[in-house]
Design goal:
The protein is mainly beta and about 140 residues long. The protein has one helix spanning about 5-15; strands at about 20-25, 30-40, 45-55, 65-70, 80, 85-95, 95-110, 110-125, 130-140. The protein has one domain (about 30-140). Keywords: Signal.
Length: about 140
């Protein structure tokens, strides 16, 4: 390879780093608090209803959301909560066990976009619980 080829590749490298994808390991200190988790049914179907709160940390803005998640009995896409940055889904994991998954997305500055995801298995009698954040990723 000629010096001019190496130089051309080296000079083009900064343009490739404008969008950087990264992944952080789970932070055990980053958790979300769920309250008033209930299950309601009507002739139109059944829904899971709950509130979720994430405290602000050094690298993550705080949030609060109320969620109303339909129960179709099968794996579904995430459903938007009343805070547009928060989505959730609840799926059966076993008899009387439900898997609650939440995704929180936010922007930092003009171009940096981040996503945090967490999940936990609960029983239908659990009304207050903590969801550990298991994945944080972003594009800066």
């Amino acid at each position: 390879m000629h010096l001019s080829s190496v130089l051309a590749v080296a000079l083009s490298a900064p343009s490739l780093t404008n969008a950087v994808l990264f992944h952080r390991n789970p932070n055990p200190a980053l958790t979300w608090q769920v309250s008033n988790f209930t299950y309601h049914c009507s002739p139109g179907g059944c829904v899971y209803v709950f509130s979720i709160h994430g405290a602000e940390t050094k690298n993550t803005p705080g949030f609060t959301a109320d969620c109303l998640i339909p129960n179709s009995g099968k794996e579904e896409e995430y459903t938007q909560c009343d805070n547009e940055q928060v989505k959730a889904k609840v799926t059966p994991a076993a008899d009387f066990i439900r898997n609650v998954k939440v995704e929180y997305s936010w922007l930092q500055g003009v171009t940096a976009e981040f996503h945090a995801r967490g999940q936990i298995n609960i029983t239908l009698t659990d009304t207050y619980f903590t969801i550990p954040v298991t994945e944080v990723s972003g594009i800066a």
